[in-house]
């Protein structure tokens, strides 16, 4: 089983190192090949996604990804910015489905921004379409136009979905729901956007093949409100690229910290890229205080979905739960009465729990 390891920028190398230690402890026959990506790659090769890195990712059975991005590169042309690396990987690898689970560990209910009784027992899966929508639709750009007060610039992007793109993400969401509580909420903005009306029509049509699944529809603004008001009403949420990007980050804060949430981005054959949903956190990079649990849990998702090692994945998840039960916390999930530890100490604890 060949795994491409792309640590990236900021805290990426620190958290990836702990995930590697956990994977090594399992005793599986894993081969790792590391390659630069993001700002690190730009510094070395003048490109956030060098051809050699892309080859490593394409040749692997799965990709374990850290994070990319740094304010230092914000003035570069967009094509050279670190964030283009993850967009390029999604496109080149055909990673159309982003699975973002938001689960509240009982021990972390008090760390949520909401009352414990609102989030206790929360277990949501957000299925985000990843290769369409306004992020990839053409045309897009910034142009000059004649305005009332002379020439001015205007920016434009195109929101675009085809029936086939909506159909495949809808079917994946319905299939995921069959392994959970058999409820899917499709989120759109069909009262305003033609793209969303197409989305709603196609999802509704596909639901006819899944008579055992309860399908509901919700506008994205209402969904954002309901995630705060009553998040446990949801089981599986399926939505487009931009809405999913926003809603999944909102859902992450229900769990206590964005540092706890893993994610999987899958192609049609189940090959995937696995990463924590948080960013590079340059303000704490190199300080040894970042939370590695989202990355460790992403490695568990990798074992489950791409490497077909569900028992090993479950071992990791149980080890993380045991560590949380013991009272160890990184700074982002620390509460009174628990013990604050750093990145390596948290990794040590998960390895010991295994």
Please give a structural write-up.
It is a single chain. The protein is α/β, with parallel strands linked by helices. It folds into two domains: 1-96 and 267-354, Isopropylmalate Dehydrogenase (3-Layer(aba) Sandwich), CATH 3.40.718; 97-133 and 162-261, Isopropylmalate Dehydrogenase (3-Layer(aba) Sandwich), CATH 3.40.718. It is 38% helix and 21% strand. It has helices at 12-25, 39-45, 51-59, 84-92, 116-119, 163-178, 194-206, 220-229, 241-254, 293-305, 310-325, 343-353, and strands at residues 2-8, 31-34, 62-67, 97-103, 123-129, 141-147, 150-156, 183-188, 214-219, 236-239, 262-266, 272-276, 328-329, 339-340. Strands 2-1-3-12-11-4-5-10-8-9 form a ten-stranded mixed sheet, with helices on both faces. The chain has a two-stranded antiparallel sheet with strand order 6-7. Strands 13-14 form a two-stranded parallel sheet. Helix 1 runs parallel beside helix 12 and helix 10 (293-305) runs antiparallel to helix 11. The longest helix has 16 residues, at 163-178. It is globular, with a radius of gyration of 20 Å.
């Amino acid at each position: 089983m060949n795994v491409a390891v792309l640590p990236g920028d900021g805290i990426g190398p620190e958290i990836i190192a702990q995930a590697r230690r956990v994977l090594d402890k399992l005793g599986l026959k894993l081969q790792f090949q590391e390659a630069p990506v993001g700002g690190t790659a730009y510094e070395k090769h003048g490109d956030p996604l060098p051809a050699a890195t892309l080859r490593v990712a394409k040749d692997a059975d799965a990709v374990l990804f850290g994070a990319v991005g740094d304010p230092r590169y914000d003035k570069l042309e967009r094509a050279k910015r670190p964030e283009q690396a993850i967009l390029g990987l999604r496109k080149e690898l055909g990673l159309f489905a982003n699975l973002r689970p938001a689960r509240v560990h009982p021990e972390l209910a008090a760390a949520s921004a909401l009352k414990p009784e609102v989030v206790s027992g929360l277990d949501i899966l957000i299925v985000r379409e990843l290769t369409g929508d306004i992020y990839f639709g053409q045309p897009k750009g910034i142009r000059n136009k004649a305005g009332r007060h002379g020439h001015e610039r205007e920016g434009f992007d195109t929101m675009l979905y085809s029936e086939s793109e909506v159909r495949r993400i809808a079917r994946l969401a319905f299939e995921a729901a069959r392994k959970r509580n058999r409820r899917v909420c499709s989120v759109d903005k069909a009262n305003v956007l033609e793209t969303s009306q197409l989305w709603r029509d196609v999802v509704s049509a596909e639901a006819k093949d899944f008579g055992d699944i309860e399908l509901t529809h919700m506008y994205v603004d209402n969904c954002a409100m309901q995630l705060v008001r009553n998040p446990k009403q949801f089981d599986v949420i399926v939505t487009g690229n931009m809405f999913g990007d926003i809603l999944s980050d909102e859902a992450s804060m229900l769990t206590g910290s964005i540092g706890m949430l893993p994610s999987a981005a899958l192609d049609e054959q189940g090959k995937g890229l696995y990463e924590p949903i948080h960013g590079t956190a340059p303000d704490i990079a190199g300080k040894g205080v970042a939370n590695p649990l989202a990355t460790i849990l992403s490695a568990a998702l990798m074992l489950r979905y791409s490497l077909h090692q569900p028992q090993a994945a479950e071992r990791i998840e149980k080890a993380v739960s045991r560590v949380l039960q013991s009272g160890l916390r990184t700074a982002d999930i620390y509460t009174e009465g628990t013990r604050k530890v750093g990145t390596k100490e948290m990794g040590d604890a998960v390895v010991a729990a295994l």
